[in-house]
């Protein structure tokens, strides 16, 4: 089977560089200078006009040596003849890309967080219109296993208060993180409630006592933290804490590459990382 030809969107970003490294490693490009046939090959790398990475070799930008793929701001040219896009950009860009992926019948792996409900509806529509989409607030294996443990604990510890704490680097622009929301949804699923009507995103001033059955969020920002998450189940005289610490963005990039390979055998539609991992 031929390698899937992959476009990295947001190539000039932190995750873009990690995604270039992950795809290049899978195709053997970084090591052998030629496609080895193991599943993915770097077809193009794209970012928005004006980004400093435009015009640079993707491999040099990602710190793995020349790959012969220049980072471009011409999205349509990048998508021509591609099979898949790995997209860690911004909500508006991911919605527009999902619509293009539907028209072109592409695999679209979306790691972008901070999407509004409207963005998520538009992305789901693209899944019905011909794109094979895998979207997740976190592509690491560890967090997806954690989510399944959280769902289980939330169901069994039905009376315990649930609080979700996250910390990320100072440059992160959305809050709570996509991962915190993913964990919140898992807890809500375990309780068979909707997260939207039970989440408490901010506490400030005279809040009164904690409302029973809610799921609280707290956000910390600073330094270069890749991503720390804790889900706390607080009950009478005891507390259970489930934690995940991301140490390198490679865990997300490898998950996204794995999702791309998995999507090759799926019908168009909208899938999650839990589908990819069979959780
Ligand atoms: P970043 O700011 O370093 O990179 C984002 C890149 O996207 C930038 O280079 C920017 O120029 C580019 N971009 C924005 N709009 C674009 C457009 N219209 N077309 C092409 N490129 C565009 O951010 P980052 O740390 O790499 O994170 C990117 C996104 O991925 C964020 O939403 C972040 O929360 C998310 N993220 C998700 C996971 C996950 O596992 N799902 C993990 C880490 C980060």
Describe the structure.
The longest helix is centred in the middle third of the chain and has 16 residues, at 141-156. This protein has helices spanning 14-27, 29-32, 58-61, 75-79, 91-104, 117-128, 141-156, 178-191, 250-263, 273-277, and strands spanning 4-9, 40-46, 71-72, 84-87, 107-110, 132-135, 161-168, 199-200, 215-221, 227-235, 238-246, 269-271. The strands form two sheets. The protein has a seven-stranded parallel sheet, sandwiched between helices. The protein has a five-stranded mixed sheet with strand order 8-9-7-10-11, with helices on one face. It contains ten helices and twelve strands. The protein is α/β, with parallel strands linked by helices and 279 residues long. Helix 1 (14-27) packs across helix 9, helix 5 (91-104) runs parallel beside helix 6 (117-128) and helix 7 runs parallel beside helix 8 (178-191). Bound molecules: nicotinamide-adenine-dinucleotide. Nicotinamide-adenine-dinucleotide is lined by residues 9-10, 12-16, 46-48, 51, 88-90, 93, 111-114, 136-139, 178, 252.
Task: Identify low-pLDDT runs.
Answer: 29-36
Main beta sheet, described? 7 strands, parallel
Order of helices and strands: EHHEHEHEHEHEHEHEEEEHEH
Strand order of the largest sheet: 3-2-1-4-5-6-12
Total number of helices: 10
- The computed structural class is alpha/beta
Would you tell me the overall average pLDDT?
A: 95
Strand content: 15-25%
Determine Rg (CA atoms, Å). Answer: 20 Å
Number of strands: 12
Amount of helix: 25-40%
Oligomer status: single chain
Ligands, deduplicated: nicotinamide-adenine-dinucleotide
Shape: elongated
Give the N-to-C terminal Cα separation.
27 Å
């Amino acid at each position: 089977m031929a390698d899937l030809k992959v476009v990295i969107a947001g190539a000039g970003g932190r995750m873009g560089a990690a995604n270039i490294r992950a795809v290049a490693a899978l195709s053997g490009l970084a090591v052998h200078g030629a496609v080895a046939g193991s599943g993915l090959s770097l077809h193009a790398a794209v970012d928005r006009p004006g980004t400093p990475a435009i015009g640079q070799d993707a491999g040099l930008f990602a710190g793995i040596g020349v790959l012969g793929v220049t980072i471009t701001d011409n999205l349509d040219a990048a998508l021509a003849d591609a099979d898949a896009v790995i997209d860690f950009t911004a909500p508006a860009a991911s919605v527009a890309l999902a619509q293009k992926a539907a028209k072109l019948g592409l695999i679209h792996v979306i790691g972008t967080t901070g999407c509004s409900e409207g963005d998520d509806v538009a992305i789901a529509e693209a899944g019905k219109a011909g794109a094979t989409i895998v979207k997740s607030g976190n592509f690491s294996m560890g967090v997806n296993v954690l989510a399944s443990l959280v769902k289980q604990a939330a169901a069994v510890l039905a009376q315990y208060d649930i609080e979700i704490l996250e910390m990320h680097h100072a440059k992160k622009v959305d809050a709570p993180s996509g991962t915190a929301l993913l964990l919140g949804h898992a807890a809500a699923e375990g309780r068979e409630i909707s997260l939207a009507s039970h989440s408490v995103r901010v506490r400030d001033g005279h809040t009164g006592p904690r409302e029973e059955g809610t799921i609280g969020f707290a956000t910390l920002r600073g330094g270069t933290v890749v991503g720390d998450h804790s889900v706390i189940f607080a009950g009478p005289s005891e507390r259970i804490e489930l934690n995940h610490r991301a140490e390198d963005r490679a865990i997300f990039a490898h998950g996204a590459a794995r999702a791309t390979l998995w999507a090759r055998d799926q019908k168009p539609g909208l899938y999650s990382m839990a589908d990819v991992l069979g959780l």
